[in-house]
Amino acid sequence: MRTPENSADLVAAEDVLLFANAAITATGQREFRSGALDQQLSLDFLHAYIRVNYRRLYAASLALDINDHNAARIVLGLLETAGEASAEERHTEGRLIAARLARLPPQRVYRLFGEVRRAGINNRRTRAIMRDWLAARPDLGHDAVKYRSGVKTAARHVHLRCPQGAEPLAEVGAFLFRPGKLPRYEHPLLDAWRRAHYEQGAVAELPFTVAEGFAARHGMKREVFLKRAAPRMTRLERLRTHAVTQRPDVDLAAMPLTRLALYVLALPFEQRATRRAELTGALRTAARRAAGKHAGSWGRVHAVLDDSFSSSGSGQKRRRPLAVALACHHLLEVLAAPGAYRGLWTSGRGDALLVRPWGPTPLGMRVLDALEPGPGGAAPDRLVIVSDGWDNAPAGLAGEVLRVWRARLDPGRRTAVVHVNPVYDADGFDVRRLAAGVPTAGIRDAEDLPALVEIARFAEGRTGSAELHAYLDRRVALFLGERDTENETENETEKGTMS
């Protein structure tokens, strides 16, 4: 019989897993079956509930692979309620916040600093965290040009000292608060911004997002501007403008796997077919890079991949669920033993490169097919289901198939089953599950699949809350750089990748 203490621990573990799934998948944007307001209200409740009841675990979730939207919300929540934490908790939270801010995109951090200012959070610890982050920026002059309002807001909030003279910080201060005071700037980007107001040739020296505004002001042709600006573009900016520039130096294989899948799905079918070798090769290369040390270690893998109409996503997250499924397809092919992978799309389509959102979601039928023994009569070692969980042709068949399979045909759990879901269900405060006995984890980027499979095993109920807390402690220690001597080299490589 379960004791009350064990019951409380179990509830805590379930709550933390529920929040982790939400923090990985939900962004407060409209999904296929729920509006943006529903998503935002659901997230508001979850953040408040977990922060109040499990503050230590709420802060520890910064060390997980949650998305940037929820990471920023957690940081804001911790700073706003600092008075509710003990001195020891504030110390740990400060380290976690600093480590997470260092991994967030700068535009997201500047937006967060704006929310901090609007919320009136102005205690000494908050100002110190903001000052330390600004001091660690590699080029504050570049930030002042590209994120001018964000830098200005942050500098005002922390009372950043900008001395007079020719020092770099003094130039940034003059640029932000005394524009037009200096006849020229020593910093090349600051001076390029000054000259771009009247000199068309200086436009190409600026960051792409800033240069676009000046190009429009000067009436530059889009094609000419893109070719001139290409050397200063980021990889993602080059990918977004590739259809116009057609530059041969765009290395698709260097793109993150899920981002590359989104790019592929945005192309017309004719282009996908014409560029089949290039696109497939790039997806496989990105998948091998994402798999890393896990490549070939999963044995026989069968996958059920959802390309039903609901995988089209929404206007704000266009084709995102389908892109995750396509990226997982290529990643699972690498994770499986050579020649031991089988991917089944719900539509029955066999050409992964030409998938499109179409039709109902017959997950049950595809799960039956996936559980069929492969070559040699052996059942798969792993069955991975990538779907939003809306099994509707017929409804509920997938859950029943998996229940009978586990109870009657595979009670020894020779086949590990996991369901990863890229869509947050606002009404259920979680990602939608296929069956109670099937471990389910939220997923946003396919690159996180190996780590999410590890988290999903806690949702299966076969491990206790002590194991979950130990796992979170390990992730926090790794996140903060507290490495064991024997693992120092390996963890150093992982930290470099995360940075």
Task: Describe the fold and architecture.
The two termini are 47 Å apart. This protein is 55% helix and 6% strand. The chain is mainly alpha-helical and 499 residues long. The strands form two sheets. Strands 2-1-3-4-7 form a five-stranded parallel beta sheet, sandwiched between helices. The chain is built from 24 helices and seven strands. Helix 4 packs antiparallel against helix 5 and helix 6 packs across helix 9. It is globular and about 80 Å long.
Helix content range: 40-55%
Q: What is the approximate shape?
A: globular
Question: Order of strands across the widest beta sheet?
Answer: 2-1-3-4-7
User: What does the main sheet amount to?
Assistant: 5 strands, parallel
Mean pLDDT: 87
Secondary-structure-based class equals mainly alpha
List the helices and strands and how they pair.
Elements: H1 4-25, H2 36-53, H3 55-60, H4 68-80, H5 87-103, H6 106-118, H7 124-136, H8 140-146, H9 148-157, H10 168-177, H11 188-196, H12 208-218, H13 222-229, H14 235-240, H15 242-245, H16 257-266, H17 269-274, H18 276-291, E1 301-305, H19 320-335, E2 341-345, H20 363-370, E3 382-386, H21 397-409, E4 416-421, E5 424-425, E6 430-431, E7 440-442, H22 449-459, H23 465-479, H24 488-498
Parallel strand pairs: 1-2, 1-3, 3-4, 4-7
Antiparallel strand pairs: 5-6
In summary, what is this structure?
With 499 residues, the chain is mainly alpha-helical. The protein has 24 helices and 7 strands.
